[in-house]
Specification:
Layout (H helix, E strand, L loop, with lengths): L3 E5 L3 H13 L4 E5 L3 H9 L5 E2 L12 E4 L3 H11 L8 E4 L5 H9 L6 E6 L20 E6 L5 H13 L3 E4 L2 H29 L5 H5 L2 H7 L6 H10 L1 H23 L3 H16 L13 E6 L6 H10 L5 E6 L10 E5 L2 H13 L3 E4 L1
Parallel strand pairs: 1-2, 1-4, 2-3, 4-5, 5-6, 7-8
Antiparallel strand pairs: 6-7, 9-11, 9-12, 10-11
Helix pairs in contact: 3-4, 6-10
């Protein structure tokens, strides 16, 4: 008997999960509901969605698993509607980037027996079903937050889904999850945004800081371009954990400030030495909460036709470039030209191709 999977919301993540499931198990029947009927019709035309739902109705009683893929503040609201529709043995999961609020709602509704939280730690600067892919979650961590340990088979079913998508499942409590993402995802966005705002406020009237901003500044502030609405929501749903980790970060900055005032060179050296050792121990091969940027720089002479020649070399091999531009500030030894690609495979193919043509390349 074929499995039936329901989706409430079919944006970037929901659409990517649905496409990935169809790729791995074409026999799966998928039904979906979302407010944008045109996107559902596109998904139906593509063979991803088999049944388009007009709302939360009895057809969902056929589902073996239901994914909640709407914004975090809306996911919890659907639980009450779904509770009377679930068939015995069916489970609900979600894809929210914070877990506390939905787990609290699950507990209030006494639905621990049929809920397993989930957070695929992958994404894109683009949103919506139209930007979803069947491989978005490949090699990304898929965090699984059980509501109860009494149903280990439910946990195994969500793990199996993650593995079918090419993701790496990790089972963790929702409390530990929310504290961890506060540190490695939410705090970096706050730091990046506050740093950008600081530079804007302290820049000269002729915007010299903005003109020369490149290298390290652009790398660590890239995530400040993310959706303000989404990050407002995240900060409001994981507030306590963000406050805890932000207080600790402010304290650590105070120590750095004190070390600098005292001209304590050894303490300053330890700061950079310890951070380098730990940063170098973090794998660059696995996707994380923050989307990686696939880029490298090229040491190239600024002369007529140099960029077009390079572009033709890559185009001849069908390698798509996401962005290409001049590194005006190269304080870390970057090449004069920075090229960004859509995925790791394209970046590696471009690296190999340009190496054959004897270009001098540098990893960013």
């Amino acid at each position: 008997m074929e499995a039936v999977v329901g989706f409430i919301g079919l944006g970037l993540i929901g659409g990517s999960i649905a496409k990935g499931l169809k790729r791995a198990h074409p026999e799966i029947k998928i039904m979906a509901y979302m407010r944008s009927a045109s996107r559902l019709e596109k998904a139906h035309e593509e063979g991803v969605v088999d049944i388009i739902l007009d709302g939360i109705d009895r057809q969902l009683s056929q589902c073996d698993m239901i994914f909640l893929c709407t914004p975090v503040e809306f996911n919890a609201g659907y639980l009450k509607q779904l509770k009377p529709l679930l068939k015995p043995g069916a489970i609900i999961t979600d894809v929210g980037s914070t877990k506390t609020s939905i787990h609290q709602a699950v507990a209030n509704l006494q639905m621990e027996h049929c809920f397993v939280g989930g957070h695929p730690m992958a994404g894109s600067e683009k949103t919506g079903y139209e930007n979803s892919t069947d491989h978005l979650l490949e090699n990304a961590y898929y965090m699984i937050t059980p509501a109860s340990e009494d149903n280990p088979m439910h946990i195994e079913r969500v793990k199996a889904i993650a593995q079918a998508l090419g993701a790496i499942p990790k089972v963790i409590s929702y409390e530990e999850h929310d504290f961890a993402v506060a540190a490695i995802s939410h705090l970096p966005h706050i730091i990046a945004s506050s740093l950008v705002n600081l530079v804007q406020e302290k820049d000269s009237p002729d915007e010299i800081m903005k003109q020369i901003a490149a290298g390290g500044f652009k790398d660590i502030t890239r995530i400040a371009s993310a959706s303000p609405e989404m990050w407002e929501q995240i900060c409001m749903t994981n507030t306590d954990n963000i406050i805890k980790i932000l207080e600790q970060y402010v304290s650590s900055l105070s120590h750095v400030l004190s070390d600098l005032r005292q001209r304590d060179s050894q303490a300053v050296h330890r700061l950079f030495q310890n951070s380098r050792q730990y940063r170098d121990s973090i794998s660059d091969r696995t996707k994380g909460a923050i989307e990686p940027e696939y880029s490298f720089s090229v040491d190239i002479v600024d002369e007529v036709g140099s960029i077009s020649t390079l572009s033709v070399i890559l185009a001849a091999k069908g390698i798509s470039i996401k962005n290409i531009g001049i590194n005006h500030s190269r304080e870390h030894g970057e090449g004069a030209l920075r090229i960004t690609f859509y995925d790791e495979g394209s970046m590696e193919a471009a690296w190999n191709q340009l190496t054959r043509y004897k270009y001098d390349l540098m990893k960013m």
